[in-house]
Amino acid sequence: MDEFSAALKAAGFMGEIDESLKTRDFYSHDASLFEIRPEVVVAPKNSQDVQRLVKAVKAGRKKNPKLSITARSAGTDMSGGAINDSVIANFNKHFTKIGTVTSESAQVQPGVFYRDFEVETLKHKALLPPYPASRDLCTVGGMVNNNSGGEKSLQYGKTEKFVNELKVVFADGNEYTVKPLNKKELDKKIAQDDYEGDIYKKLFNLIDKNYAAIKAAKPNVTKNSTGYNLWNVWDRETGIFDMTQVLIGAQGTLGFTTDIKFRLVPAPQHSGTLVVFLRDIKPLGRLINKVMTHNPATFEGFDNYTLMLSIKLFFSFHKLIGWKDTIKLAFQLIPNALMLMRGIPKMVLLVEFNGATPEEVSEKVHNMRLDLGEFKAKCLFEEDDNELKQRKFWIMRRSSFQLLRSKVKDKHTAPYIDDLVVNPEYLPQFLPKLRKIIKKYGLLATIAGHMGDGNFHIIPLMKLEEKDERAKLQPSMKEVNELVLKYKGSLSGEHNDGLVRGPWLQQMYGAEVTSLFRKTKEIFDPENIFNPHKKADATWDYSYNHVRDHF
Ligand SMILES: Cc1cc2nc3c(=O)[nH]c(=O)nc-3n(C[C@H](O)[C@H](O)[C@H](O)COP(=O)(O)OP(=O)(O)OC[C@H]3O[C@@H](n4cnc5c(N)ncnc54)[C@H](O)[C@@H]3O)c2cc1C
């Protein structure tokens, strides 16, 4: 790599270039179950640096055909999307500027932490609603490239609905502005006799020629982060061609994001949450469908393992919210703990409502509570519209995975069936079958997720260094994924394909559509320099060979 680093410097690269073992080790993991050590980690200073980097990789491949680059922001990717054996480009160091923010839109660089971005948008009483549960850890660039979603996606949709414009460095090493175009503007682009024109021409032809197959391939669920979002790009009825849509959720396999313009929405004025403790999960599917008739703003949940681990490790929350709030919340947990002593609920559900006034919120929460009457024998309700009181459950929901990762020492989080989505109407049949598979493999799995979307995060705690545990990975994943596909679900609602689900695209979409994904990759990145082995380029052999076996 010395030669590449030297060439990069000679090309005028201004950011850091780090080949130290310590740095390479750090960047050999994201939040997934994989491990791949890069050769070098670089931190571009600005867009010109990203352009120099892409050009240097392209040129370097003549001597070293294995050279490639993977973008990385905060590295919280759970699919293995942010790791690579060649060059890692760290956007979290210098792409950290927040530009103009108004009540309706914001311009921001991809390496900005969501938590910092939100502070600025809230000054304008505005919000970017698809923030993930990792909102305190992740960046907006990661959100765009994973097409992230979270607790508010039930009401507002995912990141794909909030991108007005992107600046992207493509495989020719130049930066382009990408935004929705009308047909006249598209025709003008297509007529350009240059690299950009060629991409527009090829992508338009691919989508227009396969229009019906592409539209039909869109998964029949409210959220999806698998494949390339080809179905959202070209709409014959509106005449709009929006190339941002294929880049959102592409995990940096088609180009690198250097700047983002987001659409924002007004931040909700008042909200309140009904916390439902469910003793028996058999009626969960039916209950979810009932709750959905009330149009909640969010509808989240987590299971008894998550609850008990969160209580056990409660004081670790001080890192997220400070000691003062942690102690306050611990006191507020006492009545809940006393209630829990009468029997641990199997599931805790959080149903949130928004409103223009506190009264409106209370009324919605009250009506919801009444309507859950038929589940009374098996549920306990706690009506709670006090912000701080609610927070202990929201913190458990949002932070449980991170807590497990850092605190459970003898086992490790193994996200490989971590993001399945099944249309809520099928949940009464689907969930018991899912539980059966988890039981069959003896998986100690925490379950949390976005109930209203039928999007479940199942994160087994495993000893992957042990042969017997490792041997469970492939067959249990196969059974769960096949079950999801049987119910016409998606294997990922938010976390994306990366190494873990890329190999499943063919099974999910069929040969024809998967070949369209591969052609899409070829259009943007014919030499496969951007983030290889992910999404349509993934194979299970490669992925499995990089499952972490020491900790
Ligand atoms: C505790 C926990 C909870 C989570 N909960 C959720 C959730 O609720 N919803 C959800 O959607 N996800 C969730 N995730 C996954 C992850 O946090 C999100 O997808 C997040 O948006 C990723 O942001 P990041 O900055 O960490 O991106 P990274 O992990 O750095 O990157 C994510 C992907 O985007 C690519 N990328 C990054 N920057 C760029 C760039 N500038 N140009 C091109 N490609 C780029 C990377 O190559 C990678 O493929 C969770 C993860 C954890 C650890």
Summary tags:
551 residues; alpha+beta; 8-stranded antiparallel β-sheet; 5-stranded antiparallel β-sheet; binds flavin-adenine dinucleotide
In short:
This protein is α+β, with helices and mostly antiparallel strands.
Write the layout of secondary structure elements.
Layout: H1 2-10, E1 16-18, H2 21-26, E2 40-43, H3 47-60, E3 69-72, E4 87-90, E5 98-101, E6 105-108, H4 114-123, E7 126-127, H5 140-146, H6 153-156, E8 163-169, E9 175-178, H7 183-191, H8 195-209, H9 211-217, E10 234-235, E11 240-241, H10 244-247, E12 256-263, E13 265-266, E14 270-278, H11 284-292, E15 298-303, H12 304-312, H13 318-340, E16 347-355, H14 358-371, E17 379-384, H15 387-407, E18 412-413, E19 417-421, H16 427-440, E20 444-450, E21 455-462, H17 467-486, H18 498-501, H19 505-524, H20 540-545
Parallel strand pairs: 2-4, 3-4
Antiparallel strand pairs: 1-2, 5-6, 6-12, 7-13, 8-9, 8-12, 10-11, 14-16, 14-17, 15-16, 15-20, 18-21, 19-21, 20-21
Helix pairs in contact: 7-8, 8-19, 11-16, 12-15, 13-15, 16-17
This protein binds flavin-adenine dinucleotide.
Flavin-adenine dinucleotide (FAD) binds next to β3, α5, β12 and α15.
Profile the largest sheet.
8 strands, antiparallel
Globally, the shape reads globular
The ligands found in this model are: flavin-adenine dinucleotide
Mean pLDDT: 90
Assign the structural class, choosing from mainly alpha, mainly beta, alpha/beta, alpha+beta, or little secondary structure. alpha+beta
Residues in β-strands, percent: 15-25%
> Unreliable runs, pLDDT <50, ≥5 residues?
none
Question: How helix-rich are the residues, as a percent range?
Answer: 40-55%
